[in-house]
Structures are given as C-alpha cells and as structure tokens.
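Figure 3 (text version): structure tokens given as input.
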C-alpha cells in the first residue's frame, strides 16, 4: 500500500501577531519581509551578531500575522529568543495549534513551491491529516544537497553563507540591517565563503561532520570549497566550483 502521508511531524508553527509584525521581524531575520506574500513563503534565519546561524525557518504570510515554520524541537528556544527582542512592542508570540506543515514531491492544490529550490517539491499549511512524511522529506532534501535544522547547520557554529543561504534564497542583500547583517554582507561582497555545508556518501565521522544518516548512506559535513571531495554537487551548486 502506498504511503500518502504529507504532514511533517517534526515541524511546528509559531504565530507572530500584534503591531507591525513585519517591521519587528525585518530588523531580525535574514530575509526581506516585503517578499513574504500569500503565495510566496520565504526561507530565512535568525543569526548571532557574528553572522552564525541559530535557527532557520520558513516565513508564511497570514494576513497581518506571520507564521514561522520551523523545527518542532527548537520551537520553544526560538520563541524565547524572539521574546528577547520584543522589548515593549505589542507583539504576541505563541505556538499555532491545529495546523500542520505539509510536503509533497508533486504539486497539490493550494501548495506552493519550496522557496529554496523548486526541485524540493511543494509545501502547504492545513489541518494535520495524520501520518508523517518527515523521513521521505529528509531523503528527498538530502538527495538534492540541501541542509536544514540545527543538527545539520549547527547552532552558533556555522556562518549563514556557509549554509548556502545565498544560493538557496535565504538572505536578502538589499534590505536594511538585521542581526548578523554586517559580517554576512562583508563575506558576500568580498567573496570570502571558504567553507560550505555539503551532503556526501557516509564515511568515518570527523570534526567536520555535522550529521550522519546511516539509513540513507549519507552525511552532512562542512568542507572547504577547494576540497569538496566526494560531496554531492547538484546543479544549483555548480556555480560554487
């Protein structure tokens, strides 16, 4: 029997509501909030002041509110971090219930293409229909050399551009300041991205290994651009070589 599950059980939704939600997030995240539209979610991150990734997520338009589609295990930590920046703003930050993130490798009604790479498939938000497509999503994503989440990107370990953020539409170089913007922009304009997160056939883990998936025969490593070795080099990475 074919598994028709589409829900990603390892994802959670955080609702950001209140006064000038987009202005609040514009000064924090790597993506331009002006690009987040009803049929155009955007991949983004919250960085350290040094430009290292803390959390990555997808931003969804929901009228005056924004929904953050991120890792379920990091939802609490992400909300606490956002609350630190809230100060006296009338901004409400809380988990969204009754709605799940869904994914399919083929187009579905009301679905939109993944903002990072069209080949990643289609994504939408709706009620949880049961089942879990997380394993299928991970296998598909890694086969395309795309990394995400704290297990693969690290937390306060990896510069955002080393996560291939520019190539996968996760950063705007035209927006104003945000946390970590100065170092991120400097690296971009000076072409100083010397290391990249890559997916490679599984081997002996070392100090550059971030995650291993024995069931897929793959691992994620941070490698120097001139020494990618046996890493997968999909079409979207060709320009890096």
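Below: residues designed for each position.
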């Amino acid at each position: 029997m074919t598994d028709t599950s589409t829900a990603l059980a390892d994802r959670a939704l955080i609702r950001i509501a209140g006064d000038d939600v987009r202005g609040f997030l514009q000064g924090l995240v790597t993506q331009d909030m002006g690009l987040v539209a009803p049929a155009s979610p955007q991949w983004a991150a919250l960085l350290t002041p040094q430009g290292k990734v803390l959390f990555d997520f997808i931003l969804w338009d929901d009228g005056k509110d924004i929904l953050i589609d991120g890792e379920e295990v990091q939802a609490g930590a992400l909300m606490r971090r956002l609350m630190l920046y809230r100060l006296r703003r009338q901004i409400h930050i809380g988990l969204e219930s009754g709605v799940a993130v869904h994914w399919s490798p083929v187009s579905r009604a009301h679905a939109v293409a993944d903002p990072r790479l069209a080949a990643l498939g289609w994504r939408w938000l709706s009620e949880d229909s049961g089942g879990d497509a997380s394993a299928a999503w991970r296998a598909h994503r890694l086969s395309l050399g795309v990394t995400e989440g704290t297990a693969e990107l690290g937390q306060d370990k990896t510069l955002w551009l080393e996560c291939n953020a520019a190539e996968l539409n996760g950063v705007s170089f035209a927006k104003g300041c945000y946390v970590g913007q100065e170092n991120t922009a400097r690296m971009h304009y000076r072409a100083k991205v010397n290391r990249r997160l890559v997916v490679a056939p599984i081997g002996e883990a070392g100090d550059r290994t971030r995650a291993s998936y024995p069931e897929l025969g793959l691992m994620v490593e941070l490698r120097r651009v001139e020494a990618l070795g046996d890493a997968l080099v999909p079409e979207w990475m060709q320009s890096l070589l």
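Residues 11 and 71 are 5 Å apart (CA to CA).
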